[in-house]
Amino acid sequence: MRIFLLAAVSAVAISGVATAADKPMYGAWGVDLTARDLAVKPGNDFNKYANGAWEKRTTIPADQASAGVGYDVYNRSQDQLRTLIETAAPSSQIGGLYRSFIDEAKVEAVDDAPLKVDVAAAMAVSSKAEMARALGAAHGGFGPDLFSLDIYPDAKTPEINVLYIGQSGLGLPDRDYYLTEGFKPQLEAYKALATRALTMAGYPEPAKAAADVVAFETAIAKISWAVADRRDVEKTYNPVTLDELKAYAPEFPWADYLAAAGMPGLTKVVLGEKTAVRDLAKLFADTPLETLKAWRVVQGVVEMSPYLSKRFVDSRFEYIKALTGQTQLRPRWKRGVVLVDGSLGELVGQAYAAKYFPPSSKAQMQVLTDNLKVAMAARINKAPWMAPATKQAALAKLSKMKVMVGYPDKWRDYAGLKIDAGDLYGNVRRSGAFEWAYKLQDLGQPVDSGKWAMTPQTVNAYNGGLENKIVFPAGILQAPYFDPAADPAVNYGAIGAVIGHEISHGFDDQGRKIDETGKLRDWWTAEDAKRFEAQAAVLGAQYNTYEPVPGMKINGALTMGENIADLAGLQVAYDAYHASLKGKPAPVIGGMTGDQRFFLAFAQAWQDKTRDDALKQQMASDPHSPSNFRVIGPTRNVDAWYAAFGVKPGDKFYLPPEKRSRIW
Question: What residues contact residue 378 under an 8 Å CB cut-off, 6+ apart?
Answer without folding.
Answer: 575
